[in-house]
Amino acid sequence: MSTNGTEKKWDRRSADTAERMAAAARFIGPGKQFKPEDTVALLEAVIRPGDRVNIEGNNQKQADFLAESLNKVDKSKIHDLHMVQSAVPLPVHLDLFESGIAKKLDFAFGGPQAGRVAEFIRDGKMELGAIHTYLELFSRYFLDLTPKVSLICAYKADKKGNLYTGFNTEDTPTIVEATKFSQGIVIAQVNEIVDELPRVDIPADWIDAVVQSPKPFFIEPLFTRDPALITDSQILLAMLCLKGIYGEYEVKRLNHGIGFLTSAIELMLPTYGAELGLKGKICTHMALNPHPTMIPAIEDGWVQQIHCFGGELGMEKFVAARPDVFFVGPDGSLRSNRAYSQAAGQYACDMFIGGTLQIDKYGNSSTATANRVAGFGGAPNMGSDAHGRRHSTDAWLKCGAEQPTLDRTLGNMPRGKKLVVQGVETFGEGRAPVFVEELDAWKLAKNANLPLPPVMIYADDLTHIVTEEGIAYLNRAPDIEARMAAIRAVAGYTEIGLKADPAETKRLREQRIVMTPEDLGVDRKRADRSMLAARSIQDLVTWSGGLYNPPARFRNW
């Protein structure tokens, strides 16, 4: 009873869902199935204006048919939706805002739509909640951004409505659990409906309706990099990383971001890494999608275990044939999970290495600029020093021990520190300088009316910067002035780099706070494609024994 004597209702959410599902019941048949031609009408029955809605927009697999159908609803019936989804990589995701069906967005990754997201924010077509990291957004699904309706995708459903998410599970379990256990509605598109599933990934009683879409869902081979496109400059950076960071700290547990630098490192483990005597000392446990460029290192016995955020097109057979390395189910296919891998990257890894669009004079970095809101994905999780960590490893302890006592403002308690590395060429795409006085994120914050500039990795988390000029060991700098000087020393001919004082740089090199290729014994002349264990996609197929089946766009034979 309530204080005024009336009966308090505790099932309003489930009653609301029951009312919506009753309106949709005429479209749903046995096995919770409905026809593709009824999709728009079903969405109009279960979604209300202002609802919080999730469309499964992952890094890779997309609930594209359901997204296209949502764009076709009657705007007088459904409008001003609050979209909460990991990624918005498809044009249809933003078309919702163009038409007024959606109003507000909370997301993590913009990808190909980065420019359009920035435009919509600037023009007032989109209200931005926040640019999250994946784990941050997932956490809010279970707290204050819980979806009322989620539109997801899976490879297969059976006649009861159980789902098989297979090789690319990604975000599906997190989205479904947050929605269904808060009495929300979950609608799934699948590629096919079968009598029996290889395994049950999502049980039928967590699903409200299933449609076999007219065509298979779109999936992006996001983590495939053609070795033929790796440059000599990227190979030089990879040599510096292997000699000056991987070997220096003997990092065994780590995460690689997307990019040609990390692809070069992966392809140089069996060559330059072996030459340095690092086999068994580095890269034994990784939180990583099944990058094709990892094939030579796996085949050469470098890697003991990999947990994957998602899958990668063409790698299905290779992964299935290597269950000692990957998390493979009894059905013989990968079980990926973005939330678990994000947690592993944040707490179980000793190092993150990735790239960025801009780094300021203090070491803050961001991929959100005034004209491109690419989002952050998992980088802020991977690239942060998790203060909740309590287990110790040699690399973590060594990096922490190098942190000067001056930085310990709360006494003399020793701590480890995660290695957070940004590997960049000093000038990026279109010859835009990577090192800048002030991040464009400040302008974006003003345009989007954000309380803070959207920073991907904060300066106090960043421990190393690698450029063609050398490595800045920021974790060894005794104060902010030395950190800034170290950044200037590796910033090349950018506005920041031109302010470097040669005498100061010389002192930093003597203190091993800055190390040039020459200081590290890295021969610049050797930085060419002969360093790569595979120099083409076809070489990767050969390394895999024919198990790797690259997507058509990567085949040139």
Automatic annotation (TrEMBL):
InterPro entries: MadA, NagB/RpiA_transferase-like. Coiled coil: none annotated. One of its GO terms (molecular function) is transferase activity. It comes from the Bacteria. Gene3D superfamilies: Glutaconate Coenzyme A-transferase. Pfam families: Mal_decarbox_Al. Signal peptide: none annotated. NCBIfam families: mdcA (TIGR01110). PANTHER family: ACETATE COA-TRANSFERASE YDIF, MALONATE DECARBOXYLASE ALPHA SUBUNIT. This is Malonate decarboxylase alpha subunit. It comes from Breoghania corrubedonensis. The lineage of its organism: Bacteria, Pseudomonadati, Pseudomonadota, Alphaproteobacteria, Hyphomicrobiales.
